Amino acid sequence: MADIAHGKKGADMAIASAETPPVSWRPFAEDAAGADALRRRIMDKLLHNVGKPPTAASERDWFVATALAVRDAVVGPWLDSTRRAAETGAKQVHYLSLEFLTGRLLSDAMGNLGLTGAVQEALAAVGVDAERLQEQEPDPALGNGGLGRLAACFMESMATLGIPAVGYGIRYEHGLFRQAFEDGEQIELPDDWLALGNPWEFARPEVAYTVGFGGEVRISEDAEGRARRVWEPAETLSAVAYDMPVIGGGGRHAATLRLWSARAGSPLHLEEFNRGDHVGALRDRVRLEAISRVLYPGDESPEGRELRLRQQFFFVTASLQDMLHRHLGLFGDARTLPDKAAVQLNDTHPALAVAELMRLLVDVHGMGWDEAWRTTVATVSYTNHTLMPEALETWPVPLMERLLPRHMEIIYRLNATHLEQVRERGLGDDAALAAASLIDEGHGRRVRMGHLAFVGSHAVNGVSALHTGLLGKTVFGDLDAVYPGRISNKTNGVTFRRWLHRANPGLTRLLVDALGPHVLRDGEALAGLAKHADDRGFQAAFAAQRRARKEALARFIADRAGVAVDPEALLDVQVKRIHEYKRQLLNILHAVATWHAVRDEPGRDWVPRVKLLAGKAAPGYRMAKHIIRLAHDVARTVNADPAVAGRLKLVFPPNYGVSLAELIIPAADLSEQISTAGMEASGTGNMKLALNGALTIGTLDGANVEIRQRVGAENFFLFGLTTEEVEARRARGLAAHDAVSASPTLARVLEDVGSGAFSPGDPHRYRGLVDALVERDPFMVAVDFDGYCAQQEAVDALWRDPARWWRMAVMNTAGVGWFSSDRTVAEYAAGIWRVPAGGA
After folding, report:
1. What is the CATH classification number for the domain harbouring 696?
2. What pTM does this model have?
């Protein structure tokens, strides 16, 4: 299927075209003259783009005008970057991700261009508060959690390092749901982030590709008499491009985030409309365009599962068609694709790229099968983000055969060749073949997308040292034996420009004063902070900037959650997606144990503590939503109890996202990274919190292992079973009777929870949760409870010794400079993509 309305020299100038003209651009200077020029530019945008005079402009109007003015400063480096890539024939990275959790973009663009001060001054001159104005920008609802935030960090780092890159995803109209609470229960509301428009995007209606589903595959002859397979879809729609420039640190380079929107071929059936069937006339359009309506539609129904598969193929085929169109326009030969393009699959969601690239090369571009396979493998690489088999997507074969019949033919043929290689390796017994097959024959016949991504990639990477080591032993053990050397590690990182420089300007100023401005460009320069760790004056300054952030957070909590918290209290933070393996339940049970202890000894000198949890549960994940409700029920009881007043609070602010994280993370004293060992691939919240000086209480899971190594074991509160001990415990059985019997504290906590102490109106609400935990504890909540409580007591003891606490906080910031996404991306560039990294 060819693209529609996309000529060889079309208007897709924002990514790469040899015809892109040179652009001369100098950003506004950070001085009075620059601020004055920027003020005039903002006023012009307000008048001519927003259509409002200053006297009638709302805060939203001022935000749009400011964003458009700053966007003007981004366009020059963006077009320069794409022109240089085209002129030099540079290899380009194509990053395929179902999520891009970018957060608000104005602060990123201003910071990376060096315009923050000029914008503030320009707005102040017309009586507009720049900080309040930035709150008018919604978080683009394009992701769920760590996966999407990592993708956003990588795009910004690729731009910073001057790596030509396009990020491909879906322009979800509603994205992930907006979270609210009613009586402690999570309520999912549409997140209408596009309702007022998006000033950062450029619509590209002329960039559109045909996407097909269903139909049949027939055999025809080409001009040379050779038989070829032709897929004739039963229905088609268009993927239409929207581009957002991603400016890198220093403002010299920019990458492109290209998002696809689904458009039906016909807007309505006019005949039906004229007959009076106004709803029916739009039925097909609504059904087809549902693909880009919502991120992760509920998959409890067959229709929901089919929509998810449609989403994945939709963005994969549009992205690969776009890549090939550009490649052929610049280089003319699909056989050179591995030399000029790298396709990175961010998790299993884009795994259909393996089969689709084969289809495009063989069926559309006439390449021979073997050459197409060599080209595909040499072009594609795959990042795995999970060790949980249930999270490695599989799709029912009947659904795949109905929706993507040609792709199933390709997968069957690839599987036959792959299994022959398994036999050649001497691993051809029935059990080995079944484990290595791309088709799981034991669970209703399903296509294993993780296996497909692995077999179709030249490089497969994990995202922390522990995770990568386990990949070759667990979920991909059989494949690693067939394709040795394919797995490598690329430990995740985060962009310091957002998660330190912008989120925590007070700490950033302190770091620059202590280490010099080069610390803004070189994250590993943070190591020099260690020599200040014992300086009492520096400790006091470090504590003062933390106090300021806690005061700002306290105001937010009072406003949004209606709970008054003391900024002097120890702020204990667990912010992440709600999942049983992340063990928010363990944290809540500790809150109950602390409540008991304070009530038992009211005269003791307790360390005041605020426990803050935040995160969303997937709409269909009942246990995760039950845990959220338990947190609220416990909070309601604890926060209203005068016996613990001022000594313990529990808060759960709604709708956790990037902007809320930017408020919470710089204020945190204690970082809860307490997942069951061997289950968290990496984590990036652990890096952000440690970067801002929070101390970590955690298990030897994911990147916690490397964080502990780098900040020093003495600066980390370690507890819990190791990965090997978890496996041994599971081998003995999952019942937790012994752990509960051995812990009077835990037994008392579970009795209170199970008997309705926190849900008096519904005393049996949590009986099932407690019984299930005792009978089957796969996430080791009961087993690790006493060890966790012991380390929390160590936390309290340390908090009473401010000199030791702040020394450890400084050492955490000093030790995590390595966890920069610039370092991670540079490792991908050198070890997987084979592209040079320049730098701002």
Report:
1. 3.40.50.2000
2. 0.95
